[in-house]
Amino acid sequence: MPELPEVETVRRGLLPVLEGHHIVSAKTRRGNLRIPFPPRFAERLKGRTVQHLRRRAKYLVADLDSGESLIVHLGMSGRMTIYRKGKVFMPGEFEQDTIAAEEGHGLHDHVIFETDAPARIVFTDHRRFGLMTLLKTDELDADKLFKDIGPEPLGNAFSEPVLSAALKGKKTSIKAALLDQRVVAGLGNIYVCEALFRAHISPKRKASTIAGKRAEVLVPAIKRVLGDAIEAGGSTLRDYAKTDGSLGYFQHRFSVYDREGEPCPAKGCKGTIKRLVQAGRSTFFCPACQK
DNA sequence: ACCAGCTCCTGCTTGC
DNA sequence: TGCAAGCAGGAGCTGG
Q: What is the mean pLDDT of residues A238-243?
């Protein structure tokens, strides 16, 4: 799935067709994703204005003028695709006046929104690990989906003392700890590997030993890798695409992820990237320069 | 309370 | 070429 940079890229792609716009209609094409849709889901969205489209951890949050918020999680394979009327193509191509009727009716196209942008927004998720629900906007923070989520890594609230405190006494590996959304929000397998590489910290190191000096290195490493990835439009491996169907390209800048057997890219390091399995997930790292 | 392991689902890649 | 096993970016739940 989309990790924080991919969700943020999707949010930015959706802004022009969602924020400040009316939802003309919403349609679900099955009864559930990872969880069932809430009662009267489509009716509660119809005619509403999206006042703000924001992101919390890996969730997209669309605040509506009804006092409710539409919550979207892309899971492992969720995408949002925008089809727009009057899209201008490159010279030599035609200008599209209508959205093809079949857009949004693929096997795994589960939710279709029409907005007055005008645009059709299609949520596609072949693995259905994603979710979509509606919550009262002023009760979001107390909801079980959000109440235990840690600080946003790109905000000022994520700092060396905060990370140190969150890791204090943790016996698990730093790799597993950073995947825990209660410690810090929005990191997934790829960016944890990349951040630990940049910080020269071994993924096998016990989490509690990071507090202090190592956390001073790790916090900026996390911020930089996420910032760089957002700037690159996210990473595309298998299932992620931007809202216009194009691909992110940060994957070409991975230092260790999915690079088992390749030479370590760190300056002066003669190590080789290794793969190991932690908590059932692949970890990629350089044993020579990550200690 | 914490932590490792399992599970949901489908599709792509890999290896025999 | 065909087929089955293995693997995938998340995260909630179970049981030790």
A: 82
Q: Of all helices (H) and strands (E), which one includes residue A28? A: strand A23-28
CATH of residue A167: 1.10.8.50
- Measured CA to CA, the distance from residue A59 to residue A249 in angstroms comes to 22
Write the CATH number for A134: 3.20.190.10
Q: How far apart are the first and last CA of chain A?
A: 28
Within a domain: A291: no
Spot the catalytic one: A11, A55, A58, A214: A58
Query: Using a 7 Å CB cut-off, which residues contact strand C?
Result: A 1-3, 6, 34, 57-58, 73, 75-76, 127, 129, 145, 179, 181, 187-190, 234-240, 280-282
* Residue with CA nearest to B1's C1' atom: A170
How much is the pLDDT for A255? 96
Segment A105-116 mean pLDDT: 94
Distance, Å, A145 CA → B2 C1': 20
Domain identity same for A38 and A124: yes
Instruction: Reply yes or no on whether the pLDDT at A82 is more than 80.
Output: yes
Domain holding A92, by residue range, is 4-139
Mean pLDDT computed over A30-48: 96
Record the pTM: 0.95
Is A261's CB less than 7 Å from nucleic acid strand B? no
Residue A39 CA: distances (Å) to CA of A44, A64, A122, A139, A286: 9, 17, 20, 18, 49
Does any domain span residue A211? yes
Check whether residue A8 and residue A130 sit in a common domain: yes
What the block records as the tokens of A183 is 């410690």
